[in-house]
Amino acid sequence: MSVPPESVPPPVSSSPASPPPPSTGAPSAEERQWAMFAHLSALLGGLVTGWVGGWGWFLGPLIIWLVKKDTMPFVNDQAKEALNFNITIAIIFVILAILGIATFGVGFLVALPLMIIIGIAALVFIILAAIKANEGVAYRYPFALRLVK
């Protein structure tokens, strides 16, 4: 007596299930949220370390990038973008501070207004990047040195 093929159950595999391949489509809600956090963490780092010169602008994006780079491609991209932008801002601020110190304070007449303008522009760009990342759009800052690739 023969058994119809549709009534035969499929063979059971003894190998462990492999994880699903990474999707090439739109980022998941969790990826979008982590990417948004990568951008906004720069603001938190700047606020927390503001009393010691604000050197923490790049710590949040760096931590998120190191933790999520292998598991979430969209977060990897956006955290690197945020990290590169905030390192660029930090370099600009250090150069302006050195200019002010090297000229015995006279350079601060130019450096301080520039720091304020650049700081406000960075705030606007970071907020725009966070909004775009939350929408699932890969944001590129208009000026940033691509140091982390």
Average pLDDT for all residues = 84
Overall 3D geometry? elongated
Query: For the CA atoms, what is the radius of gyration?
Result: 23 Å
Can you tell me the residue ranges where pLDDT is under 50 for at least 5 consecutive residues?
13-22
Largest sheet: none
Total helical elements: 4
Class from helix and strand fractions: mainly alpha
**Helix share, percent:** 55-70%
Euclidean distance between termini CA atoms = 65 Å
Task: Indicate the proportion of strand residues.
Answer: under 5%
**Total beta strands:** 0
H/E element order: HHHH
Explain how this protein is built.
It is a single chain. The protein is mainly alpha-helical and 149 residues long. The chain is 58% helix and 0% strand. It contains four helices and no strands.
Layout of secondary structure:
Elements: H1 29-48, H2 59-68, H3 73-102, H4 108-134
Helix pairs in contact: 1-2, 1-3, 1-4, 2-3, 3-4
Jot down its keywords:
149 residues; mainly alpha; 4 helices; 58% helix
What is shown here, in short?
The protein is mostly helical and 149 residues long.
